[in-house]
Amino acid sequence: MKNIKSLARDIVSNVGEKLRGTLVFNEYKHVIARIVGIEFLLLNTGHGYNLPGNITWQSLINSPTNLSDRLNDFSVNVESFNTQLEAVFTSFDFSKIDNVTLYEVINIINKHSLSKEQFNDTDVTGEYIDAIFSELALREGKVGAEYFTPEGLNELMIRLLSPKNGTFHDGAAGIGQTAMKAFQYNKEISVYGQEIVLSIYGLLQINSMVHGVKKEKGHFALGDTLSDPKFINENGLMQFDYIAMNAPFGGTWEREKAERDIYGRFTRYGIPSKSHGDMAFVLHAVASLKENGKATMVVPHGVLFRGAADQEIREALIHEDLIEAVIALPSSLFLGTGIPVVILLLNKNKGEQKQGKVQFILAEDNYGSTRTQKYLRTEDINNIIYLYEEFQNNEVDSRIVNMNEIKEENYVLNPKVYFPQYELSTRIGTVMVNKNEYENSVEDKMKLGDIAKVFRGVNLPSKSAIKANEGKGHKVIQLKDVEGEKIQFNKLDRLPVQNIERYTVQSGDIIISSRGTALKIAVVPDNVEEAVLSNMFIGIRLLNKEEYNPHYIKAFLESPIGLYFLEAYQKGSVMRVVTAKDVEVIELPKKDIQEQKLLVKEINATEQEYKILLEKAERLYRDSYMNIYEKMGVGKAIGLIEG
């Protein structure tokens, strides 16, 4: 058998060369997939679709004459003979490509295609079309990620569901890989998918066809799942045994329609905010599950911690015991983006052992990688499945948490919050922090919110406003202005910010970066000139400086325990995001002011000694090498510029 991945690479590469200058790159998939779909219909003898009798695959590869017209005619006729294929082929117009180029494209595909015998084995044709879509998405990068779900992620979602006979639904189907993975897992299952983009919907149908999903088993619809769900019956919204979705992350949705949703999807648990459509998909899944149904949802971290409406929804889902597991996955699984994701596993019929509990699994550090992205290896998937199926509670990478503990954490579902031991990179090296040990061994603690006013910095004006008022306004502290734990006041930009009274820093304020990849903490020095804190920082203003030393607070926040709290409660996807509320609840050891001052003095002495020893080591290192170069006979040709 030919190497299918090699065939796919050759097709995508060579067809791309032919189409360059004729179509934009993201249109290549529509040409390749539709020609492969036509090839399948003409060569596979068991697909069950009705075909026009005036065309053969051989006739297409033999002559370029009127080729685009012949392909367009075939598209119209096959859709008229098979109503479920409406708009699948005709949504792309082959006349956009001249006949000679189109003829060369078809012959490239024919040259690197499967044999006629292989086209009658849908396991092989399914692997073939998967490889083609994978290669196309890889070359499209971030655009490809909009319709392509990585193979390992699909496998993990479906294995967590372990679908038996019944029905499967994906309301954000894309090209249908998740649905096809469910079908491959159990070919007796009926698959239902809805896709909002017409051109991608065509690829979804072709993907299903080439995978060998029979007409009576595959049900696909075009439209917006949130505002216009297509799978309904006499009882309202159709319900399914299994659901898996990789819905769009965040994104706005038509929230105003939710209050009038005739299917009641958003009345029981609440209406997500307009900018968080991912939570709306979660509620669609809940409403679309049968009484014993299960769902796996790929969601960004925001679904786990957002406040307001989303928090109320999480609280309701937890109280109704619908969340079975939260699985944290590596970042960069998707093409063109470093966004880390989690799998939210919903179950309307938990086993007795799992009732009233949520399982948290940490799998962020288990992956393989290529030059462009990370991926889940078979062993990574097997380990997650083992932890889930065995309901492991090892407190290292799997933990079982009861409802009361989740309530204590304000219904935040970030897995890191629930693991007492956590590995961190710190200034003293990589350490393992034990949250329980800290909380049990340090009896006298104080919350930052009780001893300080914690506030967020001012929102920055738009680029156009900054440009219109260039050099005017107030000095503003931004991320770039904190270097080496010091605020570079001489480098501050003047920006036209408003209502500065609330955000003007004072001597002794501690500022901590609220976003960004690197944590920055600094103390505002004495005799500070007027400067405003930007929303890139959280400010901590001690209520009584006679009792609390700002440098002691800073030292704690920079300690492994402080870093644990800042990292465990951080929000965001690629960038770390910390809120004022996160900082307010951090508890630190209570010390009297004299102890605080002594500890700060000891820290300063340690830093000074380290600096001296480092300079001495560097000087010794340099001098030793210069001595070697002298012995080598090249010393006189080398002149040190620094040091």
TrEMBL record:
EC numbers on record: 2.1.1.72
A Gene Ontology BP annotation from the UniProt entry: methylation
Catalytically driven reaction(s): a 2'-deoxyadenosine in DNA + S-adenosyl-L-methionine = an N(6)-methyl-2'-deoxyadenosine in DNA + S-adenosyl-L-homocysteine + H(+)
UniProt KW keywords: DNA-binding, Methyltransferase, Restriction system, S-adenosyl-L-methionine, Transferase
Domain DNA methylase adenine-specific: 121-421
Signal peptide boundaries: none
Annotated ranges, domain Type I restriction modification DNA specificity: 445-601
InterPro entries: DNA_Adenine_Mtase, DNA_methylase_A-5, Restrct_endonuc_typeI_TRD, Restrct_endonuc_typeI_TRD_sf, SAM-dependent_MTases_sf
Molecular function terms from GO: DNA binding; N-methyltransferase activity; site-specific DNA-methyltransferase (adenine-specific) activity
Entry keyword Transmembrane helix: no
Similarity section: Belongs to the type-I restriction system S methylase family.
Name of the protein in question: site-specific DNA-methyltransferase (adenine-specific)
Organism of derivation: Bacillus cereus
Source lineage: Bacteria, Bacillati, Bacillota, Bacilli, Bacillales
